[in-house]
Amino acid sequence: MNYEIKQVDKFKFIEEGEGEPLILLHGLFGALGNFNDLIKYFCQYNKVVVPMLPLLELDLLHTSVGGLQKFVHKFIETRDYKDIHLLGNSLGGHVAILHILKHPERIKSLILTGSSGLFENGMGDTYPKRGDYEYMKKKAELTFYDPATATKEIVDEVYETVNNRLKAIKIIALAKSAIRNNLGEELNQIKQPTLLIWGNNDSITPPFVGREFQRLIPNSELHFIDKCGHAPMMEVPGEFNTILHKFLKKLSEPAAVA
């Protein structure tokens, strides 16, 4: 399904539905298409917002997790969103964590899935192998439990990115920034209810990473999904949406009277 991409100032984004904002942050090789099923389902209940993160548009000095966080902060301020449910996958999760640590005031809850920020297996020392389509195809397939989820469209996009020298440099800069920017010692400062949804077969941020996030974030709950890799909202959208909807509904209910 295609959604209208809006533009306000320098920000390009999708905004569908009404209600409390559910802001979705994609990962390093992410795109708006990663969230199609999520948008379609939750626009019935929330104002679903997907900003296009400038992964490859920032100058090299600001091509970092911190640079992306500043972009997200300016976007939220410009649009004046409040009571936000902030969701991030992979690098997007890392940006979401950094944002809630720096600017918690507008955030109602945090949702992380396959998030970096503690540990992640990168593309390896040999990345990026420019010009080797089969190699990039195998790397893209590692993201998922079912390799067939890495469609030709996804592989083509990754291949095109790493074969552009400047884009490849920026991808490496972001990946290195994510590894350097370990947030383990700060996670106990997060006060908002936090939902962790993890693929049991995630090889990039393996299951122990989800458990460590749960241990370090005070008010958090962790759900594992079987036969699922690094992008649960793409690979098993039905199960992902059910877990997320239950979490959001619980937050909207008045506190039970003791």
Could you walk me through the main structural features you see in this protein, from its secondary elements to its overall organization?
- With 258 residues, the protein is α/β, with parallel strands linked by helices.
- The protein is built from nine helices and eight strands.
- The protein has helices at 36-42, 65-79, 91-102, 133-141, 152-162, 165-180, 207-216, 232-235, 237-252, and strands at 6-8, 11-16, 21-25, 47-51, 84-89, 107-113, 194-199, 220-225.
- A hairpin with a 2-residue loop joins strand 1 and strand 2 (11-16).
- Helix 1 (36-42) runs parallel beside helix 9 (237-252), helix 2 (65-79) crosses helix 3 and helix 4 (133-141) packs across helix 5 (152-162).
Instruction: Give the class from helix and strand content and strand pairing.
Output: alpha/beta
User: How many helical elements?
Assistant: 9
Bin the helical content.
25-40%
What is the rounded distance between the termini?
45 Å
Low-confidence stretches: 123-127
Overall, the morphology is: globular
Strand order of the largest sheet: 1-2-4-3-5-6-7-8
- Can you write the helix and strand succession as a string? EEEHEHEHEHHHEHEHH
Mean pLDDT: 91
Strand proportion, as a percent range, falls in: 15-25%
Number of strands: 8
